[in-house]
Design a protein that fits this description.
This protein is an alpha/beta fold. 41% of the residues lie in helices and 26% in strands. The chain has three helices and seven strands, in the order βααββββαββ. It is elongated and about 70 Å long.
């Protein structure tokens, strides 16, 4: 299944993959070589640890490659009438106006106003239109969010 990413989100995944393949892989290989120099591998815990780290790294690399292969980049949503990944919004919540952007979960940074499409707020807002008032479910009940503008 194709997963939607912003252009920036896909670039972030590619940079992480490049780091893991070029730098981290070499670092782990050096650890493995050093641990192997201790001798008998059957009772060498440093070697076992390095080998486990290598397995975890290779799994991470495989998962990132799959994400990148399956990525569907969301085009610029400027001027659209409904909320999608990549949409920048002006909303009103609890009487306060806020600017947020709906992003993929890997790009989320709530402090910077980047809300995951998988978060309660993101799920509530996706597909909604300018001017619409939505009810976001929270543990203590609901909060009303008004979409003032989709920028």
């Amino acid at each position: 299944m194709k997963k939607r990413y912003t252009k920036e989100g896909l670039e972030k995944l590619k940079k992480e993959l490049s780091y893991l393949e070029k730098e981290k892989r070499k670092e782990v290989a050096d650890k493995l070589k050093y641990a192997a120099s201790f001798g008998d591998l059957s009772e060498n815990s440093a070697y076992d640890d390095a080998k486990n780290e290598q397995d975890i790294l290779e799994t991470q690399i495989s998962k990132l490659k799959a994400k990148i292969t399956e990525a569907n980049v969301v085009e610029d949503k400027q001027g659209r009438d409904f909320v999608q990944i990549g949409s920048q919004l002006e909303i009103e919540i609890d009487g306060q106006k806020k600017k947020i952007e709906i992003v993929d979960g890997s790009d989320a940074d709530p402090i910077a106003g980047k809300m995951s499409c998988e978060s309660p707020m993101g799920k509530t807002l996706l597909g909604k239109k300018r001017g619409e008032v939505c009810n976001m479910k929270i543990p203590s009940g609901e909060k009303k969010i008004k979409i003032l503008n989709i920028v």
